[in-house]
Amino acid sequence: MQSLRWLEAIWMTATAPAGTWIFLEGASMEPAYADGDWLLVRPLAGAPPLSPGEVVVARRGDRLVTHRLIELREGMAITKGDACSSLDPPVPIEALLGRVVTARRGASRFPGYRRVRRLMQRISPAIGGGRHERS
Q1: I want to staple 66 with a disulfide (CB 3.0 to 4.6 A). Which of 16, 100, 131, 135 is the partner?
Q2: Strand (E) or helix (H) holding 41
């Protein structure tokens, strides 16, 4: 698994105030964002306060997760993927790193993409391919 600590450092220090493009993997934010989309994420450091309804990137354990902010309460943030049936466990507000401001539609919008991707994931270890962290 590749580390995304460098990306967190950029967002936490706001050294890239215009934002950073990240590749979204997973279907938890469909239909707003799909597997294969590119998301422009702006750091929260020095930015206006978040509002419920915005899509945020949060640290959850050793992963970064992109989900919609539902509520801020008592120093905790509650998020949920648009395609998920239940809320995520609360995380400290400090775990929120950035907000999604725009997207470029990616490869997942093309017919057959998911089938080819699943096949590549199965054979990837056999050919030495690595795994990306999922958002």
Answers
A1: 135
A2: strand 38-43
Q: Is the pLDDT of residue 130 over 80?
A: no
Residue 84 pLDDT more than 90?
yes
Q: What is the DSSP letter of 108?
A: G
- Separation CA 135–CA 130 (nearest Å): 16
Determine contact, residues 97/43, Cβ cutoff 8 Å: yes
The tens digit of pLDDT for each residue in 60-82 reads 988 899 999 999 999 999 999 99
- DSSP at 54: -
95 and 59 Cβ atoms separated by less than 8 Å? yes
H or E, element range at 5? helix 5-13
- The answer to whether the predicted template modeling score (pTM) of the entire model surpasses 0.85 is no
Per the CB < 8 A criterion, the answer to whether 106 and 27 are in contact is no
Q: What separation, in Å, do the N-terminal and C-terminal C-alpha atoms of the chain show?
A: 13
